[in-house]
Please model this.
Amino acid sequence: MEYLVGIDLGSTSLKVCIYDRKGSLVAKASEPTQRYHPNASHPEWTIWHPDQIWGGVAEATKRAVAQLAHVEHIQAVSVTGMSMDGVPVDENGKWLYPFISWLDPRTEPQRQWWLQHIGAEEQFARTGNPLRHFCPALRVLWMMEHEPEIMARTAKWVLIEDYVNLLLCGRLATDYTMASCTLLFDLHDLKWSDKLLNLSGIARSLWADAYASGTVLGEITSTAAEMTGLPVGVPVVLGGQDYLCGALPVGGFRPGRVLDLTGTWEVIQVALTEPKVCDAAQEMGMMLQPHVASDRYAVWAGAVAADMLEWYRKEFGSEASRLAEEDGGTDWDYLMRDAASAPIGCNGVMFLPHFSGASFPSFDTASLGAFVGVSNRASHRDMLRAIMEGLDFQFLEMITAIENCTGVDQGTVVALGGAVRNEFWMQHKADVLGRSIEVQQVEEATALGAAMLAGIGIGMYSDEEDAFDHVKKEGTLYQPNLRTSPLYRDLFEIYLQLYPTLKSVSHQISANLTKHSL
Model:
C-alpha cells in the first residue's frame, strides 16, 4: 500500500489527510486555525500566529500518521490552502511579524494607493488579479510604512503554504498559483513582473522563486520528522492554491466543467487552455491565473457565502442546539428543517448576502447585507430560508457572469465543499440554477488535490488525467424541480435589483461606520 499526504491550511481548520493510490481516505486529523486580534485599538485587525499554524499542522500530522500501520509506506507530502496570507522572515527563516489574515481590513489605504498609481486595468492585464485589500503586495506596503524596522530585517515575504513547506523540508520556493495571487507575478510570462515591482517599490528579493505545481521541493528533515511523525526523506512536493487543488479530484481542470466550491466562500471556477476572458472581467472582480494542472489556466470568482449561515446559527440557533442536545442529530439538522418548512419566496422576505461587501460580479467593499420585504407575516424560518435563497441567487448571478465572460458552454456543474453534505441546500441550488448539479463522493477534495500533486511529482501518476482516472468516484446528481425553478427565476429578477437599489444607502452607512470607528 502506498500513501500520499495532503495538508490543507484553511481559515477554520488545519487538516491533514492521508490517501491511498486510488484516492481513498485512510487517515485524517485536524487542529483549529486560531484567529487573534492583537491590537485593542484596532479590534478588526486579525492575524494567524505562525507558531500556531506550524504547531497545529505538526500535531495534526502526527495524529494522522499514528493511524497508519505502516508509516514507511508514505511516499510524498504536499501542502495547499488559503493563498493571500504571508509572513516576513529573516535570513535564517525566523518569522518577524504574524500572518495578517485575509479577514483583516487594514490595507485598504494601500489598495487605494495602488489604484491611483498603478491602476486596476494595468494590474489585471499583467497579472489577472482583481485588486483586493488582502493581496500580499499590499501587506508588504503596509509593513514598509508602519513597521520599517521589521522590513529592514526581512529577507523574504513567505506565503502561508510556503512557510509550512520551509519548516517541512528546509527549502523556500513558491508555485505559480500562489505567486499569481500577490499582484506582482506576470500571468503570461510566469515570472515576477519587473514593471510592477518597480512601480510599487517592492524588492524582487523579497519573493521566492516560483515553479509549477507538482515540482519536488525537498525532503522531510529530521527536525520536521520528530515534530510530525513523517519519515525522514519523504519528498515534499509543491501544491497550490486551495480552490485549484480542489478541482483535480472531480475533473474540474477539464474545460467545459464548472466547479462550484462552497464553504465560508463560494467560488465558481472554470478551466481554460488560454488566458483569455472578456473585457469586463477586471471590472467584475474575476481572477485569472495559472492552474495547478499543467498547461491550464483557471478563471474563478467568489463571494462570502456560508459565513452568513454561520452568523444566523450563532445568533439565532440556540433552539436548534437545544433540540440537537435533547433529541440527537446536529443543530444544522433542525435549522435546515426550519428552512425547508418555509415557503418559496419566504413570505416576501429577500436577502442581499453582502455581509462582507460585494465581491462578484459587482465589486464593492462598501456594500452591506440586507433583509428586505419584511412584514409581520415573516417568521424566523422565513428569515433563514431567505438567507439560503439570497446565497443561491448570488450563485446563479456568479455562474451566469463567468460563463458569459469566458464563452464556456453550459457544461456539467460539479459541487464541492461543506455545503454538499446538506441535501436540502444542494437540491435548492439545482432548483435555483435550473440545471443539474453533480456531487461526487470525494472526501476532503482540497487535500486530495494536494495529494494528487504529490503523486504526480514523484511519478506515481503520469499527469493530472492519470491521477483523476485513479481517484474519480461515483456521485449524486441533483436534478432541478421543473415546477419550482420558474418561480425562482421570477424571484431572481427581483433579487438583481437589490444591490443597485440599496447601493447609495449602504455607502452612506459604511461611511458613517468608518467615521465612528476611527
Q: What stands out?
A: The chain has a mean pLDDT of 94. The chain has two domains: 3-245+441-476, 305-411+482-517. Residues 305-411+482-517 form a domain with the Nucleotidyltransferase; domain 5 fold (CATH 3.30.420.40). The first strand starts at residue 3 and ends at 9.
